[in-house]
Design a protein that fits this description.
five-stranded mixed sheet; six-stranded mixed sheet; alpha/beta; 294 residues
């Protein structure tokens, strides 16, 4: 798939993840997660950094039902940029296809695909869903598909999106078990693939950065309420009143590709007070900062 986009200087790829539409559908006047999603979209599309692409990296809904996907699609109906959706463990493939018919199922029914983006960047969207399982999955068929995709363009800069992080974060109750076969399988495919600029995930509802198979890996925080940051070990048999979910603001990512390097930014969505603007009074400061570069 090739996208007909011509960015002026660099391409901006927005990533929104873990919206969980339908978590509390009876809330009035609107369920909390839809309100948070609406605010995130407004900031993204009406703010100063409108992207060329929008990636929805899974857990778009909370139950995978067609009705929740329809609510999501309705909010995105007037979105002026292409949307690349992925399935998460709370989603269903049938539900996603009902809302985003532009996605074509691959052999085996998996919803993975590759996109030719501007400035020579290739984007690969993976399917890590195993229905009925909270954690990720990456079977031999999906591994073979990804290996073939990478072999098609071994010298082309590539960005991978997937829902489940194939790493442990230290938040025990959200992490995969050590040595899960699907993670080992993905590692074998990606090891030595130097064209892969980064892997970006969701699922964890917190920001993290690390490396996997020698590749930079980032997790974008959720639009839905965030997972509390508590890295102490948890005993599943001993409730200890620890915080699990917080009302931290929704967050999205902007991945900026200029044809040579990939840089990721993260912004919380809220009502912030502006402390400085580019006015004539601050022009000497700005000009001085540029002078250092000349």
């Amino acid at each position: 798939m090739r996208l007909d986009l011509v960015p002026s200087r660099a391409v901006l790829i927005a990533q929104i993840t873990d919206i969980h539409v339908g978590f509390a559908p009876d809330e009035q006047p609107e369920e909390l997660n839809l309100t948070r999603f609406r605010a995130t979209l407004a900031r993204l599309l009406d703010g100063p950094n409108r992207p060329e692409l929008l990636v929805l990296s899974g857990d778009i809904t909370d139950h995978g039902d067609v009705q929740s996907f329809a609510k999501t699609a309705a909010l995105l109906a007037d979105c002026p940029i292409p949307i690349l959706p992925l399935v998460g463990n709370h989603d269903s493939r049938a539900g996603l296809l009902s809302a985003f018919p532009q996605v074509m199922p691959a052999e085996g029914g998996f919803l993975h695909y590759a996109v030719e983006a501007p400035l020579g960047l290739r984007i690969i969207c993976l399917d890590t869903l195993e229905e009925g399982r909270h954690g990720g999955a990456f079977c031999e068929a999906r591994a073979a598909w990804l290996a073939a995709q990478l072999a098609e363009a071994p010298g082309q800069p590539t960005l991978i999106f997937m829902h489940h992080p194939p790493v442990g974060s230290g938040i025990d109750w959200m992490d995969p078990a050590p040595g899960e076969p699907w993670i080992e399988r993905l590692y074998r495919v990606l090891k030595g693939q130097h064209q892969v600029q980064a892997i970006h995930c969701g699922h964890l509802h917190r920001p993290i950065t690390t490396r996997f198979a020698g590749i930079p890996l980032g997790v974008t925080p959720s639009v839905a309420p965030l997972v509390a940051m508590d890295l102490t070990p948890i005993d599943k048999h001993a409730p200890d009143n620890r915080e699990l979910i917080t009302t931290e603001p929704p967050t999205y990512a902007l991945h900026r590709w200029d044809g040579r390097s990939l840089v990721s930014h993260y912004e919380r969505v809220g009502d912030w007070q502006v402390l400085a603007r580019f006015t004539p009074a601050l022009q000497p400061m700005i000009e001085g900062m540029f002078a250092e570069r000349d």
